[in-house]
Amino acid sequence: MMFAVAMTFIDQTIVSIAAPDIVSELGLSTSGMQWVVNAYLLALAAFFALGGRLADLWGPRRVVVAGTLLFVTSSVLCGCVPAGDYALAWLVVFRATQGLGAALLFPAALAVVVAVFPIERRGRALALFFGLTGALTAIGPLLGGWLTSWTWRAIFWVNVPVAIVALILTALAHISDRRRDEPLDVVGALLIAAGMGLGVLGFQQASAWGWDSVATWACIVGGLVLLYVFCRYELRTRHPLINLAVFRDRAFAVDNLVLFFAMMAFVPLFFFASVYAQVSLSASPNQAALYLLYFFAGFALASQWGGRILDKRGARPTMKTGCVVGAVGYALWAGKLTDLSMHDQWPYAALAGAGIGFILAPASTDAVNRALDASYGEVTGITQTVRNYAASIGLAVFGTMLTHTMTDHVVDTLRSRGVPSGTAHSVAGDVTQQITGHADTRTPTGDGPAATAMRDAMSSVRMDFAEANQWVFYGMAVALGIGYLCALRHPGGRGPATEEQAIQE
């Protein structure tokens, strides 16, 4: 199951490294490239609950196989995107179907792992599962940098051999396929997908439409209304897609709140840190990948430590520790971004990674242990829906923040070099669109005063981008600070069944 899930984790990060080459060859816009990244995360969030429910209804083995086949087929089609007017639509559609495949695959695979281990050993087992699969996310940038030197299309095609091995191992594992004879909540699946999609569209497009735009708020509010309707519908239907009654357990609700804010600081980091490394630090794709490894060194170590603490003392200590360590790490890391030195940043990157490592596996495992009346597939679908929706929101919100801050900094830089205000705003908008959409550091060409000023100001623009990223990293630190306040509300302990097991021992 870890091997099967590896593809879904790698694809969360691998595209960010190849973004400059994709944009250059296909001529994508800034918002277009962000949607290529975000379409995958959004589909994950929108359909995870469906994946968890289908694992219960059809059996986890069938859903793992179906999700793997859909994922690898979509990967091949992403790599075969034709250049031209339809390139963006092609990529976004098949990135979304990739996300749908991952949404089917992951909760079914995790449900298998959860069912294999008894509760008293589950914390350590899932710490290993999340630690290794999370570490595989670090392979994405490394693999992306190496494959991009050949062709960026290979970042999608590499999933083919991985999928073949995963399918062979799944067949050899002889996984039991317990099924439920219940109807599928199609209306609920459509409502949650539409609500999440509309909300993230509003956040994503705020950088282009503006926060004072009616369209921006119509999407955000419309998405929230649809999610409210979804919740009301789920409470009335006999066989809901998500059994909202599980949120009556305070520990389960707190686990999901902490996961929400932690994921806002986790997945978006890959995109922003990799682009920062290539723009502000003038790093190659391979060097940008190594830059992210500092983060995962801390993440991998803390994941294992957090799993052991979970088995002995419960999730509350690990979540509180993780939020504090992560918030401090992100804040200190933000302060070092303007030094423009990769070497000086590694301790803070590792500290930020350790904070996230302490949170993810314990919070996810504790949520499963607390909701014993619901199935593993269903509970996994809920927690992963929360996690990936948060990642999509984080990418959209922080992307908007970066765009506005970067534009203001570049305008000030150009004005200080004598460029008229109107021209400065126009050029700054173009520069920001180029840089925040992908890691393009090519020097502007042309003989006009604006182009000349931009060539003279390139070193300052790199610093402007570093300063703009500081606000993003500080925002991630704030998200973890809110997560800490949520963790304080956790009742503690190791869950009803775990405590009963401890008494028996």
From TrEMBL:
Q: Which InterPro entries does the entry mention? A: MFS (IPR011701), MFS_dom (IPR020846), MFS_trans_sf (IPR036259)
Domain of life, per lineage: Bacteria
List where the protein spans the membrane.
34-51, 63-84, 96-119, 126-148, 154-172, 184-203, 209-231, 252-276, 288-306, 471-488
Organism classification: Bacteria, Bacillati, Actinomycetota, Actinomycetes, Kitasatosporales
All copies of the Major facilitator superfamily (MFS) profile domain together span 1-495
Give the species this sequence originates from: Streptomyces vulcanius
Subcellular localization, as worded in the UniProt entry: Cell membrane
Pfam families named among the record's database cross-references: MFS_1
The UniProt record lists the keyword Chaperone: no
In terms of Gene3D superfamilies, this protein maps to: MFS general substrate transporter like domains (1.20.1250.20), Multidrug resistance protein D (1.20.1720.10)
Query: Which keywords describe this protein according to UniProt?
Result: Antibiotic resistance, Membrane, Transmembrane, Transmembrane helix
* CDD domains linked to this entry: MFS_MMR_MDR_like (cd17321)
- Has UniProt tagged this entry with the keyword Transmembrane? yes
What this protein is called in its record is: MFS transporter
What is the membrane topology here?
Multi-pass membrane protein
